[in-house]
Design brief:
The complex is a heterodimer of chains A (about 250) and B (about 280).
Chain A (H helix, E strand, L loop, with lengths): L8 H17 L4 E6 L2 E7 L8 E5 L2 E7 L1 H21 L7 H17 L8 E7 L8 E5 L5 E4 L2 E4 L3 H11 L6 H13 L15 E7 L8 E4 L1 H8 L19
Antiparallel strand pairs in A: 1-2, 1-8, 2-9, 3-4, 4-5, 5-6, 6-7, 9-10
Helix pairs in contact in A: 4-5
Chain B lengths: L12 H4 L6 H8 L20 E2 L2 E6 L2 E6 L3 E3 L2 E4 L5 E5 L2 E8 H22 L5 H13 L2 H4 L5 E9 L4 E7 L5 E3 L4 E4 L3 H11 L6 H18 L15 E6 L2 E4 L2 H17 L10
Helix pairs in contact in B: 3-4, 6-7, 7-8
The chains are: A alpha+beta (about 250), B alpha+beta (about 280).
């Protein structure tokens, strides 16, 4: 009979964290920024069917990087949690804080459970408030930590270098077009200092939580022509209400 | 595992199991006690509860109007004067409910959530027929309660984006649904009179505004002959709820808009108490 190798708990956890980190680092990044009217999500994603950014509830959205089947599972779980909670209590009682907590518990339990492999995902849960000061952004790592973020957050591949870039340039009260430009500049940067890549609207998945939206559901995807006009700096495009967004209903 | 609503703790396995995009199915497997149809009533008893009365709907050029009076009755007592019985189901459809008010409101909440849930999980909107079928399922699950006097009978109306026109579906207590191809429909205790009224007033090619007037006329006629239906209450400023659903989505007429229609109808009825007259031949 062979003797099992002894692995110290520290080493086991470090290995698991390293495993999850490598999985996440392989993917493209997602940027989340606050702007004057809410929160904008920008992901590098050529697929129109597999989303990295999605709606969870009235004022809450979800962004993720890493392994698709894992974060898709968590997204569906989040939608079910939010809808069940809103049905049992009231729509006002569904909060990003509560959802981030549930995600943290779920990720943390999976991370430290010997029988399961850690999830290779990093999540952002954001909630738009009545005023800019009430906006909330939570970042969740695979080990179940929750980080309460402000202004600008990046998850995925070059999160650190893009995060530094955005942190230096982000200011309160950006317009949507300015915030979008900043996010795209960040995503397009070469981490080794080379020339930035050119990102076209087709390579981007963009959505906003817009507190000015009259509907109770504040989430809206920015697609096609509207995205192209915003990227070219046309501020008036921000007011358009795209009828092609999947989350346009009330 | 129990439904975890405390806001802490890991998501139960049921939440993370892929599969159904239906919130009803999820509730059925995870928290069946929350489903309205699951509550058993004692055998052979009937319950007296407030009932909502008349709902009318009519198709016009480019959309559909759905309207309801504001009265709820319990036996011969007026239980509520300003109840609301017409609700948006999603951006392009609405549901108006006659029958047991308490169950109806809960059914509408669940129906709205069912459509929204599907849309969020799938990233696509259900087809118009699909929405109508979900409502069938919900009414059918209420059949046991309906047999004990707690029936819920809705009208489902909306703008079908694929066909580019307004459509109306009516239901019976067993969930049987039928599309109203004549262009108008009514349900509830005053529906007989409302339908008679619309039969004489309805014509193809109405505008949205005309259709709204038609709906209020029909409700007026229903209130005229059915004691359970409430007419426009000028003293308390309680007017029917009138909603229009077009290509631009759901819109509920403001109180000013409805009161203007209701006041012009009451003024006209002072001269002709039976309302506008259709030619004999």
């Amino acid at each position: 009979m062979s003797t099992p190798f002894y692995v110290s708990p520290q080493q086991a956890m470090a290995d698991r964290a390293e495993y999850a980190r490598k999985g996440i680092a392989r993917g493209r990044s997602v940027v989340v920024l606050t702007y004057a009217d809410g929160i904008v999500f920008v992901a590098e994603n050529t697929s129109r069917a597999l989303h990295k950014v999605s709606e969870i509830y009235d004022k809450i959205a979800f962004a993720a990087v890493g392994r698709y089947n894992e974060f898709e599972n968590l997204r569906i779980g989040g939608v079910r949690y939010a809808d069940l909670r809103g049905y049992s209590y009231d729509r006002a009682d569904v909060t990003a804080r509560g959802l981030a907590n549930v995600y943290a518990q779920t990720l943390g339990t999976i991370f430290s459970s010997v029988g399961e492999k850690p999830y290779e995902v990093e999540l952002i849960v954001a909630e738009v408030g009545r005023a800019a000061a009430d906006d909330q952004i939570y970042r969740l790592t695979p080990d179940g930590s929750v980080v309460d973020e402000k202004n600008a957050v990046v998850v995925g591949g070059n999160a650190d270098s893009i995060g530094n870039y955005l942190g230096q340039r982000h200011r309160a009260g950006l317009s949507l077009a300015e915030a979008l430009k900043l996010a795209v500049d960040g995503l397009a940067r070469d981490p080794n200092g080379g020339t930035p890549r050119a990102l076209t609207p087709e390579q981007l998945e963009v959505a906003v939580l817009d507190r000015q939206r009259p509907q109770k559901r504040k989430f809206k995807r920015i697609l096609g022509g509207q995205l192209a006009r915003l990227l070219s700096g046309d501020e008036s495009a921000a007011a358009e209400d795209g009828s092609d967004g999947s989350a346009d209903t009330e | 595992m129990e439904a975890n609503l405390s806001g802490t703790g890991r998501l139960p396995a049921a939440f993370l199991t892929p599969g159904s995009s239906s919130f009803l199915d999820f509730l059925d497997s995870h928290a069946p006690q929350l489903l309205p149809g699951r509550r058993a009533l004692p055998e052979g008893m009937t319950v007296e509860a407030p009932h909502g009365t008349t709902i009318v709907s009519a198709v016009f050029d480019g959309g559909v109007v759905l309207a309801g009076d504001r009265r709820a009755t319990m036996g011969n007592v007026i239980a509520q004067r300003d109840i609301e019985k017409v609700f948006p189901a999603d951006e392009y459809s609405a549901v108006g409910i006659a029958g047991t008010a308490g169950l109806a409101v809960e059914m509408v909440r669940l129906f709205q959530l069912e459509l929204e849930h599907y849309e969020k999980i799938e990233g696509a909107v259900l087809s118009f027929e699909g929405k109508a079928n979900r409502l069938t399922t919900m009414i059918r699950s209420n059949l046991a309660m309906a047999m004990q006097g707690l029936a819920v009978v809705p009208v489902f109306a909306g703008y079908d984006l694929d066909l580019g026109r307004g459509r109306i579906f009516t239901y019976d207590v067993t969930g049987g649904r039928s599309e109203e191809r004549a262009g108008f429909a009514a349900t509830g205790s005053g529906s007989v009179f409302a339908r008679g009224s619309m039969k004489k007033l309805y014509r193809e090619g109405l505008t949205g505004e005309e259709a709204a007037t038609l709906a209020v006329q029909a409700l007026y006629d229903a209130a005229d002959d059915d004691s359970a239906t409430g007419g426009p209450d000028l003293a308390r400023k309680i007017f029917p709820i009138v909603t229009l659903i077009t290509e631009d989505g759901f819109r509920r007429l403001t109180e000013e808009e409805v009161s203007a229609i209701a006041i012009s109808i009451t003024d006209q009825r002072r001269e002709h108490p039976n309302g506008p007259q259709a030619p004999l031949l």
